[in-house]
């Protein structure tokens, strides 16, 4: 005996396994101009709905207070995110000297206030200079770093004193663009270009500590992640009208060195094989076939190139 809907031509019923599904969106990157008040996870949740897939992730977290460039991967592009998170970043920041907070930013509770009006321009620039180049930096108590398997910010918000080790980061440039004074208050605007893993909140804290008055971050806007800057970013409202996805090949060509291979080499790399080194550096390197299609991300090891991620079927 036939069941309803199982005969040829029978209409599909609600919940029927044969019901047509929405096609998956193209794989690629969405460059978002994150609004203040949103977590990076909030943005991912919104884009899952807009793109029509749960396979969405982000590279490099932005705190709720911060705005600016957040790189989001869709479908296969989620495999790029770990590599993109390691790229150089640029920020516009405002630091308030004279006030120390529990979180090293404006969202924390004030724990100390010291008049900062006596800080001279010379002392300020000396302090900034000392925080430029390779430095040892202690992350904020409320960072997402795991301590014994739990995020530091969860322990800190539960009232626990979290011990975090200093890490080596590189501040390529720390440029003061404006200084505003009003009585004992001093606000410093700056542009920071830095390596992955650098906390701008920690720079604000350490600058204030070096000047003897304390300090915290009051504004942060990320203007660039690797090759992706604000000129490419779209607000969530703009993406709701047109969810622009940067194709994988375009995204990889912009972010990594490019290696073009022959049809025979394309077949080899598609099966996870190794190629001869092209002398392009350690990696990642984008590998493209004769037709310009993205095949893989690879890294050079000695005289050979081995796949990090293969994107062809």
TrEMBL record:
<comment type="function">
    <text>Responsible for synthesis of pseudouridine from uracil-55 in the psi GC loop of transfer RNAs.</text>
</comment>
<dbReference type="InterPro" id="IPR015225">
    <property type="entry name" value="tRNA_psdUridine_synth_fam2_C"/>
</dbReference>
<dbReference type="InterPro" id="IPR020103">
    <property type="entry name" value="PsdUridine_synth_cat_dom_sf"/>
</dbReference>
<feature type="domain" description="Pseudouridine synthase II N-terminal">
    <location>
        <begin position="48"/>
        <end position="200"/>
    </location>
</feature>
<feature type="region of interest" description="Disordered">
    <location>
        <begin position="1"/>
        <end position="30"/>
    </location>
</feature>
<feature type="domain" description="tRNA pseudouridylate synthase B C-terminal">
    <location>
        <begin position="201"/>
        <end position="242"/>
    </location>
</feature>
<dbReference type="GO" id="GO:0031119">
    <property type="term" value="P:tRNA pseudouridine synthesis"/>
</dbReference>
<dbReference type="InterPro" id="IPR014780">
    <property type="entry name" value="tRNA_psdUridine_synth_TruB"/>
</dbReference>
<dbReference type="Pfam" id="PF09142">
    <property type="entry name" value="TruB_C"/>
</dbReference>
<dbReference type="InterPro" id="IPR002501">
    <property type="entry name" value="PsdUridine_synth_N"/>
</dbReference>
<feature type="active site" description="Nucleophile">
    <location>
        <position position="63"/>
    </location>
</feature>
<protein>
    <recommendedName>
        <fullName>tRNA pseudouridine synthase B</fullName>
        <ecNumber>5.4.99.25</ecNumber>
    </recommendedName>
</protein>
<dbReference type="GO" id="GO:0003723">
    <property type="term" value="F:RNA binding"/>
</dbReference>
<feature type="domain" description="tRNA pseudouridine synthase II TruB subfamily 2 C-terminal">
    <location>
        <begin position="256"/>
        <end position="311"/>
    </location>
</feature>
<dbReference type="GO" id="GO:0160148">
    <property type="term" value="F:tRNA pseudouridine(55) synthase activity"/>
</dbReference>
<dbReference type="Pfam" id="PF16198">
    <property type="entry name" value="TruB_C_2"/>
</dbReference>
<dbReference type="InterPro" id="IPR015947">
    <property type="entry name" value="PUA-like_sf"/>
</dbReference>
<dbReference type="Pfam" id="PF01509">
    <property type="entry name" value="TruB_N"/>
</dbReference>
<dbReference type="GO" id="GO:1990481">
    <property type="term" value="P:mRNA pseudouridine synthesis"/>
</dbReference>
<dbReference type="InterPro" id="IPR036974">
    <property type="entry name" value="PUA_sf"/>
</dbReference>
<keyword id="KW-0413">Isomerase</keyword>
<keyword id="KW-0819">tRNA processing</keyword>
<dbReference type="InterPro" id="IPR032819">
    <property type="entry name" value="TruB_C"/>
</dbReference>
<comment type="similarity">
    <text>Belongs to the pseudouridine synthase TruB family. Type 1 subfamily.</text>
</comment>
